[in-house]
Amino acid sequence: MITLDRVTKTYPKSRRPALDDVNVNVEKGEFVFFIGPSGSGKSTFIRLLLKEDTATSGKVMVAGRDVATIRPWKVPQLRRSVGCVFQDFRLLPNKTAAENVAFALEVIGKTRSVIRRVVPEVLSLVGLEGKENRYPHELSGGEQQRVAVARAFVNRPLVLLADEPTGNLDPDTSIEIMRLLDRINRTGTTVVMATHDSNIVNQMRRRVVELDRGRVIRDQARGVYG
Ligand SMILES: Nc1ncnc2c1ncn2[C@@H]1O[C@H](COP(=O)(O)OP(=O)(O)OP(=O)(O)O)[C@@H](O)[C@H]1O
User: Fold this and answer.
1) Which residue, 19, 94, 177, 211, is the most exposed by fewest CB within 10 angstroms?
2) What's the CATH code of the domain at 179?
3) What is the pTM for the complete model shown?
C-alpha cells in the first residue's frame, strides 16, 4: 500500500536530510506507528505520502501509484484514497460537524442524496450522534478529533494517515481516539500514525518504525515505544 524506496528528502537551506535513504513497506490493512524525537522526519514522511512535498531522491509509492508521476491536477484523486488527520484537527470553524464531513463529499462531487445518507452514518460510527449540528467551538477536543476522523474516513480511503492525532488530547480521550482508529483499521483501512505518545504505542502493540535524524533505526512487529 505504501513503499518508500531509498527515499531522501533534503529541504532547501538545510544541511542534513530530513529523511535519509529510507526504505519502508506497509502492506494493505497494516497499522503502523512512526515514532522518533522531534525533528526525526515523521511529518516529512507524511507530507511525501500526500504529495504535499516531493522527495529529493528515491521513489514513493502510495496505493500502487508512484507519487512523483501524479500530475498536479490529479493530486486530489490521490488524496481521495488517502485520508488524513492532524494534531490540530483542522476543521472549518464556520461549519457544523455534519457540514465539515459533508464538505469532504461535496468537493469530490457526491450527490446531495448520497451526502444526506452517508454523513449521519459516519458521524454515528465515530460516536457523535446528537452532536451533528454543533460547531467546532461547541465540541470538546476529543469530539473535534472525532469529526476530523469522520471527515477523513467518509470516503472510505485505502489509507488513513494520522500525524500526532492525540497530541492535543488528554490520556483518556487519546485512548478513545485510538479505539476509533483501531476500529477503522479493522475495516481493512491501512493506518499510519506518527506519534510521540509512548503510552499509546505501548498499549496498542502494533508495528513500530522508529526514525532518528531521518533514518529508520528500528522496524518491529508488535513493538513498544522503547
Ligand atoms: N519546510 C521545511 N524547511 C526546512 N526544513 C524543514 C522543513 N520542514 C521540516 N524541516 C526539517 O526537517 C527535519 C524533520 O522535520 P519533521 O517535521 O519531519 O520532523 P518530525 O519528526 O515530524 O518532528 P515533530 O515531532 O517535532 O513534528 C527537521 O530537522 C526540520 O527542521
Assistant:
1) 94
2) 3.40.50.300
3) 0.94
| pLDDT, tens only, 32-88 | 999 999 999 999 999 999 999 999 999 999 999 999 999 988 888 888 889 999 999
Torsion of CA 37, 41, 47, 52, to 10 degrees: 130
Supply the ipTM of this predicted assembly. Answer: 0.94
Measured from the CB, is residue 87 less than 6 Å from ligand 1? no
Phi/psi at 137 (5° precision): -70, -10
Ligand 1 atom closest to Cα of 45?
18
Does the CB atom of residue 14 touch ligand 1 within 6 A?
A: yes
Domain membership flag for residue 35:
yes
Cβ-contact 143, 96 below 8 angstroms = no
**In total, how many domains does the chain have?**
1
CB 40 near ligand 1, within 6 Å: yes
